[in-house]
């Protein structure tokens, strides 16, 4: 929140002491949590798009039993909806502190859940092509990146909690710094994930046909256009979330009074639009149908391994 200056000399002491009592008619926006009135149509549009994607994700997740992927998408989409609902509340009253904190915390940690859903797909993609082509076991990637994501989420949530409860600027800044650390770790995780994916793609490209055909159950799936397009969709969603995280780091590093934090156009493009692109890509080409209903078969769990052995035996018979 901006610090009052001598230009507010005509305001009553009660409003200066407690800006939450302000209205647009009685106080300047410099006393508000953000120094602009959030657009109602733009934020309402984002709420509608995220709500629509949430319904579609629920349908596909239940139908194709993509439970882990569904959990991450639900967590991320619900937080995005709450964040933009808070911005709508700020539109009507920019002086209230609670909607501002809700907006900051929800939009900061929401993409971590979406990233978790993306991380879960890598082990299944490796299984579909051939685990022998991977530098590590498929489950290793899942465990490592989910731990990375949880650590990023923990930092962001802790930082948001401290910033929300802070009663002075110094403690609030500590919370912001912890949030920056969490988002920065998420940038690192997404970057490393992209490198790992590119390295595996290179191994697949150089692999012999007999190496790829070891996974008999998935030979036809790999050749489908839908599955190949899904790989590009996954790359696009990862890039969109990565761009958003870089922006969020820059925004938080300037503080809540910084230029980026008070530039709505930049936020709506580099925050909102990037996440909309990511979730719409992951919804329009959901992994359930993209995997041809074989999402569960491609898991690295013991149950998935047993299923694959049964399929291989049937093909060999």
SSE layout and pairings?
Elements: H1 13-17, H2 40-64, H3 67-92, H4 97-129, H5 138-165, H6 169-206, H7 209-212, H8 219-223, H9 225-254, H10 264-284, H11 287-290, H12 302-316
Helix pairs in contact: 2-3, 2-10, 3-4, 4-5, 4-6, 4-9, 5-6, 6-9, 9-10
Protein name: RTA1 domain protein
Main location: membrane
Transmembrane segments: 44-62, 69-88, 100-122, 143-166, 178-202, 229-247, 267-285
How would you explain this protein's 3D organization?
It is a single chain. This protein folds into two domains: 1-31, no CATH class; 32-293, Rhopdopsin 7-helix transmembrane proteins (Up-down Bundle), CATH 1.20.1070. 74% of the residues lie in helices and 0% in strands. It contains twelve helices and no strands. The termini are far apart. The chain crosses the membrane at residues 44-62, 69-88, 100-122, 143-166, 178-202, 229-247, 267-285. It is a multi-pass membrane protein. Its main location: membrane. Keywords: Membrane, Transmembrane, Transmembrane helix.
Short summary of the structure?
The protein has helices spanning 13-17, 40-64, 67-92, 97-129, 138-165, 169-206, 209-212, 219-223, 225-254, 264-284, 287-290, 302-316. The protein has 12 helices and no strands. Its main location: membrane.
């Amino acid at each position: 929140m901006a610090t009052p200056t001598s230009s507010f000399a005509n305001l009553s002491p009660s409003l200066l002491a407690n800006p939450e009592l302000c209205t647009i008619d009685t106080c300047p926006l410099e006393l508000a949590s953000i120094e602009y009135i959030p657009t109602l149509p733009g934020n309402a549009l984002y709420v509608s798009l995220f709500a629509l994607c949430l319904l579609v994700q629920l349908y596909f997740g239940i139908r194709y039993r993509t439970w882990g992927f569904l959990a991450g998408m639900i967590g991320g989409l619900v937080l995005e909806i709450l964040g933009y609902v808070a911005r709508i509340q700020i539109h009507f009253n920019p002086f209230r502190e609670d909607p501002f904190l809700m907006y900051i915390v929800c939009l900061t940690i929401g993409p971590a859940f979406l990233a978790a859903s993306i991380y879960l797909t890598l082990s299944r993609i490796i299984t579909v092509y051939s685990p022998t082509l991977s530098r590590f076991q498929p489950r290793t990637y899942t465990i490592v990146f989910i731990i990375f994501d949880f650590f990023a989420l923990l930092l962001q949530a802790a930082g948001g909690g401290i910033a929300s409860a802070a009663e002075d600027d110094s403690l609030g800044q500590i919370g912001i710094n912890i949030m920056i650390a969490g988002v920065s770790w998420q940038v690192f995780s997404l970057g490393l994930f992209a490198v790992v994916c590119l390295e595996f793609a290179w191994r697949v490209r150089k692999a012999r046909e007999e190496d790829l055909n070891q996974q008999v159950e998935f030979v036809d799936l790999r050749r489908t256009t839908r599955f190949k397009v899904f790989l590009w969709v996954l790359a696009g969603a990862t890039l969109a979330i990565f761009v958003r995280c870089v922006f969020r780091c820059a925004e938080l590093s300037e503080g809540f009074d910084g230029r980026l934090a008070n530039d709505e156009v930049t936020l709506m493009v580099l925050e909102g639009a990037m996440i909309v692109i990511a979730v719409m890509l992951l919804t329009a080409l959901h992994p359930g149908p993209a995997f041809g209903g074989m999402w569960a078969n491609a898991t690295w769990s013991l149950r998935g391994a047993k299923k694959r052995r049964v399929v291989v035996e049937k093909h060999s018979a």
